[in-house]
Write a structure and sequence with these properties.
Arc Repressor Mutant, subunit A; 4-stranded antiparallel sheet; single chain; alpha+beta; Jelly Rolls; 289 residues; 20% strand; 6-stranded antiparallel sheet
Length: 289
């Protein structure tokens, strides 16, 4: 005998209209809520503004992205880039209860790509004891119109994104899948970071054309090979600045820079400090430890 349908219930349902001047700077949340889903809960859209982050508190749900259906259980976070076609809903036999927000803001699309949510929108392993309070704090902040609210909302969304990133990292799903040809190049740059490397020389080592090599490298690492090498050199320089009394010019040469000026410029770009400032800060930190 079929059971009568159960209606959705919304203990919390919030709307907001973020200040346009904040939207390029902060994460904003124009919509949020707490849903106890009914048996017929189902949302289907071709596209919609923002990104929906849905935390399953109990019960079961599902989402369909790019033609694939993914099951959702207690403790899962669903990240949906709403700019693409998407569906989600409750499992009829055990409808989910969820906290959810629709967030907008800078770099959310890049973050969703980094987390691979188009292929795997369900992020397992979230700690409900840590994630639930983030949503509850957002529910408290969104109705307020205090001068500090935009920054505080931004901080809570950033905390939720950080938790999602850590959960996905701990699951091993963020481990880079490095093609063997690129692995040889990375090994060379790690071992011989102080030597001159160019895209054509690295591409030859990988057995690829320079254009194809650059494209594959960026897909795997999210950056160009030369920028990857620069960060490796800066990491090596940090260690030398902290652990040795070598002159900064010598350290620049040791890590592959022939010009101290360009070394200092690159170092500040990546760390926010000049080499001298970084060394002084590390020295003070060790003294106070």
């Amino acid at each position: 005998m079929a059971h009568p349908p159960v209606a959705n219930r919304f203990p919390v349902s919030l709307y907001a209209t973020p200040n346009p001047s904040h939207q390029d700077v902060f994460y904003t949340v124009p919509r949020a809520g707490h849903l106890l889903a009914g048996t017929e809960h189902h949302i289907k859209r071709d596209h919609f503004p923002g990104h929906e982050l849905i935390l399953c508190l109990r019960g079961k749900g599902w989402t369909r992205i790019a033609g694939r259906t993914h099951q959702v259980r207690r403790g899962d976070l669903v990240w949906i880039n709403c700019h693409h076609p998407h569906e989600h809903g409750a499992v009829v036999d055990d409808p989910w209860e969820v906290f959810w927000i629709r967030a907008e803001g800078p770099r959310l699309a890049q973050l969703s790509d980094l987390l691979g949510v188009r292929d795997t929108p369900v992020i397992s392993g979230m700690d409900l004891r840590k994630a639930s309070p983030v949503f509850k704090e957002l529910f408290r902040l969104i109705p307020q119109d205090a001068p500090s609210s935009p920054a505080l909302i931004h901080a809570q969304v950033a905390e939720l994104v950080a938790q999602a990133y850590c959960a996905r990292q701990q699951s091993g799903e963020l481990a880079p899948k490095i093609p063997p040809a690129l692995a040889r190049c990375v090994e060379q740059m790690k071992l011989f970071y102080f030597q001159k490397h160019t895209v054509p020389s690295l591409a030859r080592l990988a057995g690829l054309s320079p254009t194809h090599f650059s494209r594959v490298f960026k897909t795997s690492f999210g950056t160009s090979p030369i920028d990857w090498l620069r960060r490796e050199r800066i990491s090596q320089a940090k260690r030398r600045l902290a652990d040795t009394a070598d002159d900064i010019k010598e350290i620049a040469e040791q890590v592959g820079y022939s010009d101290r000026y360009f070394f200092s410029k690159d170092f500040k770009k990546h760390t926010g400090f000049t080499p001298s400032q970084f060394r002084a800060r590390e020295t003070d930190r060790l003294r106070s430890a």
